[in-house]
Predict the structure.
Amino acid sequence: MKQFFTFINKEFLHVLRDRKTLLILFGMPVVQILIFGFALTNEVKNSKIVVVDYAKDVASKEIINKIEASRYFEIDQMLPGTNELEKAFETGKIKMAIVFPENFNSNLLHQNKAQIQIIADASDPNQATTLTNYASSIIADYQSEMNQLNLAPYRIQPQIKMLYNPQLKGAPNFVPGVMALILMLICVMMTAISIVKEKEMGTMEILLVSPFKPILVILSKAVPYLILSTINVASILLLSFFVLQLPIKGNLFLLFSESILFIITCLTLGIFISVKTDSMQTAMLLSLMGMLLPTLLFSGFMFPVENMPIPLQIFSNIVPAKWYYIIVKRIMIEGLGFASVWKETLILIGTTIFLLFISLKSFKIRMS
Amino acid sequence: MENKVIICKGLTKRFGDFIAVDKITFEVQKGEIFGFLGANGAGKTTAMRMLCGLSKPTSGEANIAGFDVYKETEKIKNNIGYMSQKFSLYDDLTVLENINFFAGIYGLSDAEIKSNSQSLIESLGIQDLADKRVGSLPLGWKQKLAFSTAIIHKPEIVFLDEPTGGVDPLTRRQFWDLIYEASSNGITIFVTTHYMDEAEYCDRVSIMVDGRVEALESPSNLKKQFNLGSMDEVFYHLAREAKRGE
């Protein structure tokens, strides 16, 4: 046991000596959270919108004036019909469109209710939500003003349509995504490289000739990264809580336990790569191309998996980050408990055991 | 028997059809400096790996420091030291950290680690380098340090796999002084080398050709036996018969 700690101590020295890598390890989560956080700012001013007014009556004019007067919107164009909308959105300049149907005012007067359609470009989901909320509240304002004068209350129903990204993916979802990405990067790549480095430097041979158990060599390599990554999880959560004001809705302990499980999954992946490769370059390429890219593409964090072709959807199931991403999202954002993530947890545990088993097996084969 | 620390009888290693090591038989006395020569691909490294307990022999017997290579590899590992042709200390750790680490994984107690590393540093006269990173030392120093570290746990036998590759003649000479010193302290030295002047320093040498030990004698007897003037010529005489290439 003492030998084990001697080894872990040495691994920590390696990690701490390499200042540049250390800076990246701790700096990366901070930078990523800040970039993602502030790129998705909530403050929206003078967004360009287009209006299609089929009604051209008193009520529609008044609402248009109110919208024009607000500091949130700037009417770029009045379009004659909805056919032109697509073109307008395609320029990328227009963030939202408001469509008044024919007989808007007379519907209000005679049926006491009328509809307005609000269409938003949801490729930036956060902005789209904000804009539609502003527009809805301006309309609600108008509605309550009108209702003060009337006995029978009017109801204007805004119908909101999100273009390009109907589920509004993105917004708070990037924190779980960044967590998956960073843990993947640190655990897989750093572990793989640090084990392969021993092979490349020739120190592995010395270690194998020593009475120190080979399996312990590998385990003690993983320990520093386990601790580093746990610190990273904590720092990401703190940042997203204090800087981005994103509350953690679910159980913090559960979130940490699941994160540690995913860290272990990644570590075994790193060990697996290191067993299979002999040079640091190969190990790095494999972790980048083989792990990081699928994490980005298939975890559902940047691109919705539901929209992918079926074969890719099936493929996404073998990406461990996908399951972790789902788990974190459910716990952190939806505030759900273990009952709703046990399946994903089981998948991660299974993957870990499987990877550990085959890496140890091929490690033994290489030894003889 | 007591004085024989390596006993090898008909030790063989096959990889499929390829016989890497073909029934080698030899014995090494305690405290002896045993040169293990052979061209590249002659099977030296494979033989050495079997003796270190890193790879299981296909057939034959071998006994290292009184332990069987099939059943007691763990005990063997506790009683041997090893230094490879690739330089093998950690560049990003200091001299002292390297020494303490290797002493630590051999399971030495804290008191032993302290006294052994102290005497190592003193005997090499590198008190002022103890807190320097190994990466900043010249290669010659690194190699001397690697050797001293390989025997920090006072093993019965130390295996040196081409320890002096790439260093200048002066440093090589100094390196061999360390080897002599270790041998006079009762540590058996098992060394492979490509430098025939180093072969002359050995008490006995074996020359491997195509997986077999073709000659096993003291350097002076070998020169007499083949009636040649230097170990270089003896080696060339034997190695040119080799069928295997690199």
In short: Chain A has two domains: 2-39+170-367, 47-163. Chain A has 14 helices and five strands. The CA atoms of residues 8 and 223 of chain A lie 7 Å apart.
